Structure formats: C-alpha cells, structure tokens
Amino acid sequence: MTARTYGSVHEALRRERGSAVGKPCAAPGCGRPANGWGLTTRPTSFSAKAGSALGYSTDLDAYAPLCASHNAQRDHGGDWHSCPRGHVRLVWGTTNGGHCRGCRREWSREYNARQKSRRLAGSTPEPGTITEQNGGQS
Ligand SMILES: [Zn+2]
Ligand SMILES: [Zn+2]
Questions:
Q1: HSE-up of 115 (CA within 13 Å, CB side)?
Q2: First-to-last C-alpha distance (Å) of the chain
Q3: CA distance 124 to 131
Q4: Considering the chain, what is the average pLDDT of its residues?
Q5: Backbone dihedral region of 86: left (phi > 0), alpha (psi from -120 to 50 degrees) or beta?
Q6: Residue 87's closest CA among 100, 104, 75?
Q7: Are 54 and 48 in contact (CB under 8 A)?
Q8: What are the phi and psi torsion angles at 112 (to 5°)?
Q9: If you placed Cys at 32, which of 67, 76, 79, 115 could pair as Cys (CB 3.0 to 4.6 Å)?
Q10: Dist. CA 28 → ligand 2 center (Å)
Q11: Percent of the chain predicted with pLDDT > 70
C-alpha cells in the first residue's frame, strides 16, 4: 500500500464522507457553515506546496467540517487551545486571515525592534562624513 498524498486524502474524504461544505463548523463554539474539510489534529504528513510545507494527516477521522476562518487558523498550525507559539486562542483571538493575534503582536514588535535598530545604526555618523542631520548646509 502506498502512502496517501494530500490530494488522495481529500479525494477519499469526499468519497467516504461526502462534501463538508455547508455543514456546521466543528470548532468549539463556532457552528458557522463549513467551506470544506479541515484537519483538526496535528499533521502526520507533509507535502511540499508552492515552496512551503503543507501539513496533512492520512487519517480521515482527523478531518472535520471547518468554516473559512477556522480552516485558515488550522493552516497556520497549533491546535484548538493554542497557537504554535503557545498563545491561548481564547485569550488572544484570531485575525480574519486565521493568524493568532498574539503572534501578530509579537511579529509587529519584532519588526519594530528591527526597524529601530536599523534606524539607530543608520543614524550613527561615521567620522568624517556629512550626516543627514546637518545635511552639509549652513
Ligand atoms: Zn469555525
Ligand atoms: Zn500566537
């Protein structure tokens, strides 16, 4: 028996369990109409897709109908309780794109820190050079 690919798993899902579209989302406390099958456990297999690893499971029972936002959330990893970085989802919440709000905050903080250190580095005048601050103008 050959290992199931991502595509064949979704084919098998449709064949054995039908379409998930329109079924209530299986995420705790959600219930919005699903837009397809989503993985509800940690992925057991990975396939390369558009340069990034796509996680999936070959266990059909690991899939449940998920709405668009929960499908997006699952695509970014973690589990129902917390994101891959360990933010508790109930506390932090999720953006429309499915990203953890806690991670978003950390990303922007890290981005700002990088920008700041870049600015600081850039504003250090080297000896003998005319800096932007004095502009060389009198
Ligand atoms: Zn949902
Ligand atoms: Zn997070």
A1: 6
A2: 80
A3: 9
A4: 85
A5: left
A6: 100
A7: yes
A8: -60, -40
A9: 67
A10: 18
A11: 83
Which ligand is nearest the CA of 79, by number? 2
C-alpha distances (whole Å) from 36 to each of 24, 72, 88, 111, 115 are 10, 11, 25, 34, 40
Give residue 75's region: left, alpha or beta (phi > 0; psi -120 to 50): alpha
Is the pLDDT confidence value at 13 over 70?
yes
Q: For residue 105, give the ligand nearest its CA.
A: 2
Q: Structure tokens of 67?
A: 């709405």
- Distance from the alpha carbon of residue 17 to the mean position of ligand 2, in angstroms: 32
Question: Quick one: tokens of 44?
Answer: 């057991």
**Contact yes or no for 54/93 (Cβ under 8 A):** no
Q: What is the pLDDT of residues 40-65, one digit of tens each?
A: 888 888 887 666 677 889 999 999 99
For Cα atoms 65, 67, 68, give the angle at the middle one, nearest 5 degrees: 130
